[in-house]
TrEMBL record:
Residues 9-251 form the NADP-dependent oxidoreductase domain. The record marks K70 as: Lowers pKa of active site Tyr. Keywords: NADP, Oxidoreductase. The keyword NADP applies. This is Aldo/keto reductase family protein. Pfam families: Aldo_ket_red. One of its GO terms (molecular function) is oxidoreductase activity, acting on the CH-OH group of donors, NAD or NADP as acceptor. Belongs to the aldo/keto reductase family. Signal peptide: none annotated. The active site is at Y44. The gene is ara1.
Length: 289
């Protein structure tokens, strides 16, 4: 299989990272630790800052990871080719390795319009791979029915806290590479979970290691984020942990809540599209590291 962002092992997330120094140090640490790709989005408002890091890394002959961004719904009715070109310029790259529609719009016609725009962007060589984020089966089937093109990537919430086997199976059936956002789930709760702690002791690793390894068992590419270089390094090493089939089944039975970690428990289509804060977790439960 040819190496591409589609068969990556781990990605580095940049949501809420807007401090220039913090972002620079974090991304350079991720680059040095050979993370497969950097994930951003126009909604994160940090493309230009990431572009500065990429420019520095190129100048100093570092191997640049794949670069992925996402287009927010307020641009779905705009000229998508122009939006892609803006991101390319902001990120200081010649092309994008992948670009996704960040979330579905309540107007399905706009979803289709934006998807057609991404198809054209790929045909023009502006991007190598195109996909979606937080799109469910029905929405993806509409995109396919209208264009004959399935997304190559679907970035969805996936963790030990919230694992949807139906979504995983569907995306695999259309050969979409699955990326998992918030792969640590409700971390504060998971760090104290007896089942996860017992598995971690068995493998002589941390609970965080177990959570990242859990994604690997489903061929989901975890997108992890941290401002700590020590943690960024440890997260990459978590891929070496191999959970047993029984351990994975136990996590599904004891840890999986079958509910999104978002504050309103929304993660798809209409509900998701009605609020700009749909993915914010309850502050008492979610802890970033």
């Amino acid at each position: 299989m040819d190496k591409s962002i589609l068969n990556s092992k781990i990605g580095f997330g940049t949501y809420q990272m807007r401090d220039e120094t913090e972002l620079f140090n974090a991304i350079m640490c991720a680059i040095k630790n050979k993370y497969d790709f950097i994930d951003t989005a126009t909604y994160y408002k940090n493309e230009k800052l990431i572009g500065k890091v990429i420019k520095y890394a190129k100048k100093h002959n570092f191997n640049i990871p794949y670069i992925q961004t996402k287009i927010w719904v307020d641009k779905f009715d705009k000229n998508i080719i122009n939006e892609v070109k803006k991101s390319i310029k902001n990120l200081n790259v010649d092309y994008l390795d992948s670009i996704l529609l960040h979330r579905p719009h309540t107007n399905m016609e706009l979803n289709v319009k934006a998807w057609i725009g991404l198809i054209k962007a790929k045909e023009l060589g502006l991007v190598h791979h195109i996909g979606v984020s937080n799109f469910d089966r029905d929405m993806i089937e509409i995109l396919y029915n209208e264009t004959g093109v399935y997304p190559e990537i679907n970035q969805i919430e996936h963790s030990a806290t919230y694992c949807r086997l139906d979504r995983l199976n569907y995306n695999k059936s259309i050969n979409a590479s699955i990326q998992g956002w918030r792969p640590l789930g409700l971390l504060s709760e998971n760090l104290e979970n007896k089942t996860l702690k017992a598995i971690a002791r068995r493998h002589k690793c941390s609970v965080t290691d177990v959570l990242i390894s859990f994604c690997k068992n489903f061929n989901v590419i975890p997108i992890v984020k941290s401002s700590s270089c020590e943690r960024i390094t440890k997260n990459k090493k978590s891929l070496k942990i191999k959970l047993t089939k029984n351990e994975v089944e136990l996590i599904l039975l004891k840890v999986n809540t079958h509910e999104p970690t978002t504050s309103a428990k929304n993660d798809t289509f209409a509900n998701l599209s009605l609020s700009n804060s749909w993915y914010k977790t309850k502050k008492t439960k979610y802890k970033m590291i």
